Amino acid sequence: MVKVNITPNNKSILVSFTFRGKRRRFNPIEDGAYGNSLDMAKAQVIAKQIEVDILESKFDETLDKYRVKRFEQSNESVNQSNNRSIKNVVNTVVNESLNLHDLFNRFYSDKVNELQYDSQKIYKNVLSKLEKCPYKTTTEAKQVINWLKDNYDGKNKNCLLAIIRQIKACCDWAVANDELPHNPFSNFKVIVGKIKPIKKNAKQRVFTVELRDSIISAFYNDKHSCYYASFVEFLFLTGCRWNEARAIQWRDINLDKRVITIKRSADSRNIVKEGTKQADMREFPINNKMAEFIKRIKPDGVNPNTLVFPSPRGKVIDHDNFTVRHWNKIAATVPGMESMTPYKTRHTTISLFVNEGNVAPVVVANWVGNSTQTIYNNYLGQTNSVSVPEI
Fold this sequence. Notes:
- The protein has 16 helices and 8 strands.
- A hairpin with a 2-residue loop joins β1 (about 5-10) and β2.
- The chain has helices at about 35-55, 70-80, 85-95, 100-110, 115-130, 140-150, 155-175, 190, 210-220, 230-240, 240-245, 290-295, 320-330, 345-355, 360-370, 370-380; strands at about 5-10, 10-20, 20-25, 255, 260, 265, 270-275, 280-285.
- The protein is elongated and about 80 Å long.
């Protein structure tokens, strides 16, 4: 069956489909606005009419039949056979069923200018799921939720709930715009029920102290990757998030007060923004080892507004470039580093702070920008068993 798509074209409506190997695209509604509930409902009726006409070999290749004036004029004869008017058809579409993928696409288009780049990926993930889902309409909410649950990969139950919450928010938006009479996903928690808990490894894989030192040494000794050696060493010294470390500027480091202020992060487009994942800012204390490290890498007369760890071209370090061309290359030469990502530097350091340094988790949580519960759940890597004290 031919699939007729409805997409935005600037602010107007564009209907597109392929018929007999030829791509057809046209605006079916003169002065129609993408996002206007009535115009969109009319467009959906037209799209369905095209699909039916193609199936019945009645397709009008001039497309005149499907333009709104001609459609409304010729609709009287259509209604005589179907025993309902265009108004009833539109009301049926508005009040009973909407294509969920199309609806979410319009919801995303309405919100995209308000979203940060990384947040846009979440919306695109929802669109991808809805594209694959065999249940297409808002009247099939229960089936959609059950399909998402059945196809849940088990990695993170919060990801599944986040997808369903976004769909619910989309339908709330549709209700507010008079496209739906009610939200069919409002009771999604009842439909979802209990999600099978994810079994996590009792121990998070982290680097040993010896392996950590070997990795740092390997970076310093590699003629191509040595440029990034100080960056890798900093990650191991602080347990700092990757996105925070590559956004630190020299003005954020105060050797007199012996503190590093972490208050920026870089997104996946390498754009530096104020604030971190968990808060506007936090402070990381500088110990003697860190102070020596900073003195060693700090250039004379450096501009305080420049990045501490820029790329070779003076820009923000790119994650994919660093990982593929440098981290993975070093990993191939250091036994035990295989399949371990750069983020394991954070796991390793936090685990060492708690297990080897005997620093209280609540203190470590403040240093690295996490809750104490997160430290216990996710970052206490190779924790040795504790003996019961003799009391």
